[in-house]
Design goal:
With 148 residues, this protein is α+β, with helices and mostly antiparallel strands. 36% of the residues lie in helices and 24% in strands. It has a single domain, classed as CBS-domain. The strands form three sheets. Strands 5-6-7 form a three-stranded mixed β-sheet. Strands 1-2 form a two-stranded antiparallel sheet.
Length: 148
């Protein structure tokens, strides 16, 4: 089965300048857990999930490090710490969004999408056409519905 057969075509989106409060309102009112961030041409430039918004209320964990000659050397978690700290102070979509977006094409097999969602531990992926323009979204729920 192809992505275009199960994707949701009417996708709620936000712009990079959308305030955090408006994003939260969209997620709650539309009963969705994430939303693509698009530019004026509807190219996907980021994704925002409930998890991203929750990070605003959660202090970041200090990355693992060790002290060598009085200097702390961080050996894991530094990128995650910086991302979490950035999200605490975010006021707009652009400041809180995940910028490394994984997307799929309408002609991709659903099995490929399922594998991506499981391996990357994500809940949704935007669907883009050959010009990179948003045409839909596929979530875990869409794949589960397919099993019915």
């Amino acid at each position: 089965m192809l992505v275009k057969e199960i994707m949701t075509a009417q996708v709620a989106t936000v712009k990079p300048t959308t305030p955090i409060k408006d994003i939260a309102k969209i997620l709650v009112e539309k009963d969705i857990s994430g939303v693509p961030v698009v530019d004026d041409a509807y190219h996907v430039v980021g994704m925002i999930s409930e998890g991203d918004l929750m990070q605003k209320e959660t202090p970041p964990e200090i990355p693992d490090g060790l002290c060598v000659l009085g200097a702390i050397i961080f050996y894991s978690g530094l990128k995650e710490y910086r991302d979490a700290f950035r999200k605490i102070w975010a006021a707009t979509a652009e400041q809180i969004m995940t910028k490394e977006v994984i997307s799929v094409r309408e002609e991709d097999e659903v099995s490929k999408v399922a594998k991506i969602l499981l391996e990357k531990k994500i809940k949704r992926v935007p669907v883009v056409n050959s010009e990179g323009v948003l045409s839909g979204i596929v979530s875990r729920r869409d794949i589960v519905k397919m099993l019915l």
